[in-house]
Amino acid sequence: LKEMNLTPLSNDLLNEREELLSKQELDNPVFHLAKQFAEADRIIIAAPFWDLNFPALLKIYLENIFIPGITFDYTETGIIGLCKAEKLLFITTRGGFYSFEETRELELGSKFMQAMCVMFGINEYHCLDAEGLDIVGENVEEIMSQAFHRAESLALNF
Predict the structure, then answer these.
(1) CA distance linking residue 86 with residue 157, whole number of Å
(2) Which residues are bridge partners to 81 per DSSP?
(3) DSSP states of the chain as a string?
(4) Which of these, 7, 41, 61, 118, is most buried using a 10 Å CB contact count?
(5) End-to-end alpha-carbon separation of the chain, Å?
(6) 6-58 confidence digits (pLDDT tens)
(7) From CA 22, how far away is CA 120, in angstroms rounded?
(8) Shortest CA distance to 135 belongs to which of 91, 97, 93?
(9) How do 87-93 and 124-130 pair as beta strands?
(10) Residues whose CB is less than 8 angstroms from the CB of residue 154 and which lie 6 or more positions away in sequence, other chains included
């Protein structure tokens, strides 16, 4: 993503997108990432857990693919997803433990990805995480080994 020179959305960029959409100029490079994402059969996104979420650069990328008429659309009955992908896998590492009932609410990255799947019409969502990697006394090698075994298992049907 660093090499893509993505920029955060601004009012000017949103207005440009809206104008292009109103003219049905979907071949404009502004829509390339959204079209690429919408056409994918399977999607894998990997990012570390940062500040209860994922890195800002990934958020900027995602802002660039939330395009009505390409990845989702509005109807009289609500939002419908337009993405071709049947499955999305989000892979993340976390320094602490955020899958426990007491801390689950603090984990926003996986929640965002799951909500995005609903919005985009991607029916199957998986999160593969490795947690506790920064906790003194935790066996990092064992945590990663277990994550790799879960990855292998997920890969069989992905």
Answers:
(1) 12
(2) 72
(3) -GGGT-----HHHHHHHHHHHHTT-TTSGGGHHHHHHHH-SEEEEE---BTTB--HHHHHHHHTT--BTTTEEEETTEEEE----SEEEEEEE-SS--SSTTTGGG--HHHHHHHHHHHHT--EEEEEEE--TTSTT--HHHHHHHHHHHHHHHHHT-
(4) 61
(5) 24
(6) 989 999 999 999 999 999 999 999 999 999 999 999 999 999 999 999 999 99
(7) 21
(8) 97
(9) parallel
(10) 89, 126, 128
pTM: 0.92
Single-letter residue type at 72: F
Looking at the DSSP bridge assignments, the partners of residue 80 are 73
At position 19, the amino acid (one-letter code) is E
Q: Give the separation between CA 59 and CA 135, rounded to whole angstroms.
A: 27
For 93, the token pair is 């590492």
